[in-house]
Amino acid sequence: MFYFGAINHDLLLLFLNQFKNMKTTTVLLTLACIICMHTFSNAQNLDGSYLVNGYFFHPSASRPIATSKTIIQVGPNTYRIDVLGDLVGWGFQFTVDAGNHLTNWVATGVTPPAPASGFMTADNPGGIIYAGPPFPGTSPWMHATYNNTYNPATHTFYMHYGYGTGALDQNGYNRQVYEQYTLQLSSKISAVTPLSGTSLAEVTITGQNLSLVDPAAYSVAFGSVTADTAWLVSDNELHAKVAAGASGTVMIRDVNYHTDTFPGFVYTPVPPVTNPGWSYVGKPGFSQGKASYVSAATGTDNVPYVVFIDSASGRAKVMKFDNNNWGAVGPLASDRTSTHTDIVVTKANVPVVAFADSVAGVTVKAFNGNSWATLGNEGFAPVSPYAQNPYSMALDSNDVPYILLPGATYPSLITVFRLQGRTWVPVGDTGFAASGLGQAKLAIDKTTNTPYIVFDDVNTLNATSHYEATVMRFNGRKWVIAGNAGITNARNGIYYPDIQIDSKGNPFIAVQDDNGFERMSVYRFGAGAWSFVGAQRFSKSRSYYCNLTLDKKNVPYVMFKDASYNQQGTILKFSKGKGSWDTLGARGFLPVQDGIERHSLVFNNFNTPLVAFSDKNKGGKVSVVKFDGGEQQVSGQQSTSNNAIAVRSMEFSLYPNPAHNTLTVNLSKNETSSLLQVINLSGEVMIERKLNNDKANTITLDISKLAAGSYRLSVRTGNGNYSKQFIKN
Q1: Terminal Cα distance for the chain, rounded
Q2: How many CA within 13 A on the CB side of residue 205?
Q3: N or C, fewer C-beta in 10 Å, the chain?
Q4: Secondary structure (3-state) at 16
Q5: Helical (H) or strand (E) element with 479
Q6: pLDDT tens column, 219-247
Q7: Which percentage of the chain shows pLDDT scores above 70?
Q8: Tell me, what's the pLDDT at 489?
């Protein structure tokens, strides 16, 4: 005999009308499904994490309760709690009826079974003596409030229960508990649109309680990749931008550490970079083995040098470019395995290198024409195990080397040394500043030979316990703060600070500015204060490994790993006229193997930018590239017709710049089979025109359909490639 209870009459009638057409087995299965559907359609799902406040009355150890507990659904409207009061391993089970009353107490764990435990209906009905106050039945611990009910409007349970060993009813409950359970709301995803996209595509996440998600706390991810950025629109809507390689389940995490997911996001890689405006200097991948800690410098003769740790030996190696080839400069610079190389070149074109020797510590050497000679004493300072940058090197106007060294303790106490004769001597006090992560850099104002440093200052710990940047300079007697301490204002602190001084003595710093989404910020010091160069956090994706360089005209450039775009290197140049940062060449053009080192972006006297890096397209070996955006040359690179990267001089001009509808190009000569291309910052060819039938040297291009922005005009001939940038407004 079946008991149908309150099953819907129409549903039951529909079933009975079909009865005659069903086999007995089918009838039973169908009826079971109807009963299950009905039962669960009336069930509430109240499981989750709850904040619990209350009081545990005990004959000898009464105490307040303030904790969190999990309520677990074990059946339709039936739940279990595995902590009784504050006793782990004690528990109980109960049912929430249609009127939201808590019934059907069942002891679990080591809780005495009923009737020795259960819900109570009165305050201390057995008159148990407690050492109070408070006492059961006195405000706020009264059964009138804690009446074993659930309030669905506030997602709150009010409980009053007790137990007593051997008790026959609640009169014998000498342990009595009053508790309020308040649901910790959790964020839920209901939809993600679209479910595919490329780097920096905007995705909409809809759901419930999304205001509990802190977008700046790495709380939105696509697969294993954190979103490039995220922002809250409303409690039901969150937007995020996709980062490189982000495929799989979309995940959010709220402030209560609850997570929710939505499956199926598919990442589309950005198109490969083409026509980046950069070309290799000599053979790409010219080191013997995979390279690390790559730095570069140029001399007054414009010859580029690189220093790196070659995996073939594990030692520091220096090479220079001459006669279209990269060749070694003397023997290996370090005698043992080493890390963290750097290089500078004196006005006499003598390369000076520094490295962290695995045995001796920080060592500085200069090339004497045949071999590498140690400056001062070898390993004059130990390498700090706490410092991310174990030293920083710079030359003053007299080619005297300076070295910044973080100490070998935490925090890292900074000392700057200057080579005096054959001895490294401190500049001012030792340990004059404290760096949190040993992220400190050195630069020299060559107008006065004043040393400056930038570092992550432990004395500027912010509200989220992260460090801000401070700059100090040596005034001839002591180290003093330039401007104010804690220049930056980054929620999660700053990383990889860098510093440069222009030819007029103005300091610039760049930082990886982290407010939950890492970006580049650059500051300039003038009139006693620091100000932004362009906008704060101007880079357009997660940006790592900050590298700041000034060209020969004091124009600042930053190079960084463009992590959210394609995990490759991007270089931005500041446009003073526009007050903004523009991409130099194509975005993400540099195939860096790992990170980007300081002094890997340099300028020669032609103001040609060159970058040395570990090239992932060449197995991590060293490559050097130069920017082909003008009539720029690299010494040692001969203009031979069989050299694909040679730059020949061909004068051409374009106007107006900025342009609106038309762009006029004047060529000094119209070579056979010339090709004009207008290329956007992503490397896409937007306009192309062959010139072999044009006899005139003046060409007018219709650019009216181009979107506003920065473009590169490329002129390709049989003898070389030439390009200039222009702006479409």
Answers
A1: 83
A2: 34
A3: N
A4: helix
A5: strand 479-481
A6: 999 999 999 999 999 999 999 999 999 99
A7: 88
A8: 86
The beta-strand segments (E) located in 608-684 are 609-615, 621-627, 652-655, 662-667, 675-679
Across the strands, what pairs with 714? 677, 723
Say which CATH topology domain 652-728 has: Immunoglobulin-like (2.60.40)
Residue that is written with structure tokens 């020669």 in the block: 604
Q: What gap in Å lies between CA 686 and CA 679, rounded to an integer?
A: 6
Query: DSSP letters of 269-331?
Result: PPPPP---SEEESSSSS-SSS-EEEEEEEE-TT--EEEEEEETTTTEEEEEEEETTEEEE-SS
Q: Tell me which CATH code domain 278-627 carries.
A: 2.120.10.70
SS3 content of the chain, % helix, strand, coil (to 5): 5, 50, 45
The 10s digit of each residue's pLDDT in 23-50 is: 444 444 444 444 443 433 445 779 888 9
User: Angle CA(441)–CA(317)–CA(636) in degrees, nearest 5?
Assistant: 95
pLDDT digits (tens, 9 = 90+) for 439-482: 999 999 999 999 999 999 999 988 888 999 999 999 999 999 99
Backbone angles phi, psi at 242, to 5 degrees: -75, 140
Predicted confidence at residue 478, as pLDDT, reads: 97
- Take residue 237 and report the two structure tokens written for it: 């809507």
- Please provide the average confidence, as pLDDT, over all residues in the chain: 87
User: Which token pair is 7?
Assistant: 């099953």
DSSP 41: H
Using DSSP, state whether 694 is helix, strand or coil. coil
CB 262 within 8 A of CB 250: yes
More confident: 651 or 175: 175
Assigned fold of 188-267: Immunoglobulin-like (2.60.40)
The mean pLDDT value for 89-105 works out to 97
Look at residue 688 and tell me whether its pLDDT is greater than 90.
no
Query: Distance of alpha carbon 149 from its chain centroid, rounded?
Result: 47
The tokens of 103 are what? Answer: 């019934």
The more confidently predicted of residues 719 and 563 is 563
Distance CA 573, CA 257 (A): 41
State pLDDT tens for residues 524-543: 999 999 999 999 999 989 99
- Enter the pTM of the model: 0.71
| Cis-peptide into 64, omega within 30 deg | no
Q: Hey, is 341 helix, strand or coil? A: strand
Task: Say which CATH class 48-183 falls into.
Answer: mainly beta
Q: How far is CA 24 from the centre of its chain?
A: 64
Backbone φ/ψ region at 447: left (φ over 0), alpha (ψ -120 to 50), beta: alpha
Number of H helices, E strands in the chain: 2, 53
